[in-house]
Design goal:
This protein has 300 residues and is α/β, with parallel strands linked by helices. It is built from 12 helices and 8 strands. An 8-stranded mixed β-sheet has the order 3-4-2-5-1-6-7-8, sandwiched between helices. Bound molecules: adenosine-5'-triphosphate (ATP) and magnesium ion. Adenosine-5'-triphosphate (ATP) binds next to α1 and β7.
């Protein structure tokens, strides 16, 4: 099973590229899942089809999945009930499953848990991950060290505290340890999958404008500092030559950013995606798939 993460700044075309990648991959006969890791899902709109909160078959060899964060947070809460109760108990705070999903960092944990379920199930040849603008890959990379640190500390206190917790309620301390260990195994499994270039690839989507190019450079630096290679960059919304002043100015400015990216990242595949002049959804995704993969700019 391979994983392709589409990462990048908000609104640059990550979801469109994820959907088009899914379409292309499924047309090559690969069992493909397009998985939304963005709490503000947009795959239903882009595929122009209703996608459920379980992986839905939406075409031949093609599945799409937009986990329902509220529903999944309840499942997550159940799975890690003891750990969560103990953690919030430390701060004398009460937490309800329905409030849980909106807490900072929790959506990343829940999506990591879901992605792990999909990864270990090994049902698909390719999973395309449509990330949230904040690049969901970073929390995925950082989670193992956070949970490992947490586990070490808990294990360090084991003799002192676990016995006490077990006394509060029989098996409570051991249940917490079991849940933390389970979470650590999952986050390590996903981290190992992401840093293995045979398993994972990260494609950064950007547009030829200053703020987007700079943010992409920062993203690539951070991701690569974690030992994960960004193999491809998609430069989206590229304008073609036209006689009007407005387009000519825009084209000239775009060319300089495209050249900068090509010079800086000569070791990566760089794909150019034209601005279509209209929203991309439904049938027009086929053209994006053709431009990105059919033309040989990118490979799966
Ligand atoms: N090449 C293109 N030509 C014209 N419109 C495009 C192109 N690529 C994307 N769009 C449009 O731009 C908008 C944003 O695209 P998309 O939702 O894929 O971006 P995103 O990076 O996933 O955004 P977000 O960060 O909000 O998740 C959509 O309306 C989409 O139809
Ligand atoms: Mg999106």
């Amino acid at each position: 099973m391979r994983l392709i993460f589409m990462a990048g700044k908000g609104g640059v075309g990550k979801s469109v590229c994820s959907a088009a990648t899914g379409i292309w991959s499924s047309q090559q006969g690969k069992e493909t899942l397009v998985f939304s890791m963005d709490p503000a899902h947009s795959l239903s709109d882009i595929f122009d089809i209703e996608i459920g909160s379980k992986p839905d078959k939406i075409g031949e060899h093609l599945y799409a999945y937009e986990p329902d964060l509220n529903e999944e947070s309840k499942n997550f809460f159940k799975r890690y009930k003891n750990m969560i109760t103990a953690l919030f108990g430390l701060f004398e705070a009460e937490v309800k499953p329905e409030d849980f999903a909106s807490m900072p960092g929790i959506s990343e944990l829940i999506f990591m848990d879901k992605l792990n379920d999909i990864y270990v199930e090994k049902k698909y040849d390719l999973v395309v991950i449509d990330s949230a603008p904040t690049a969901m890959v970073l929390p995925l990379l950082q989670l193992p060290s956070i949970t490992t640190g947490f586990v070490s500390r808990i294990l360090g206190m084991r003799n002192k505290w676990i016995g006490l917790l077990n006394m509060l309620e029989a098996g409570f301390g051991d249940a917490i340890l079991g849940e933390i260990r389970g979470m650590r195994i999952k986050s390590e499994t996903m981290r190992n999958a992401i840093i293995d270039p045979k398993t994972s690839a990260i494609t950064v989507v950007t547009i030829p404008e200053k703020a987007a190019v700079m943010e992409s450079q920062r993203l690539i630096e951070i991701v690569e500092s974690h030992g994960v290679l960004v193999g491809s960059i998609v430069i989206n919304h590229v304008m073609r030559e036209c006689d009007c002043q407005f387009c000519m100015r825009k084209v000239t400015s775009q060319i300089s950013y495209i050249d900068d990216l090509k010079n800086k990242y000569a070791n990566k595949r760089i794909a150019i995606l034209d601005d279509f002049g209209a929203e991309v959804k439904g049938d027009s995704l086929q053209r994006v798939a053709q431009d990105l993969y059919g033309s040989g700019q990118l490979t799966i």
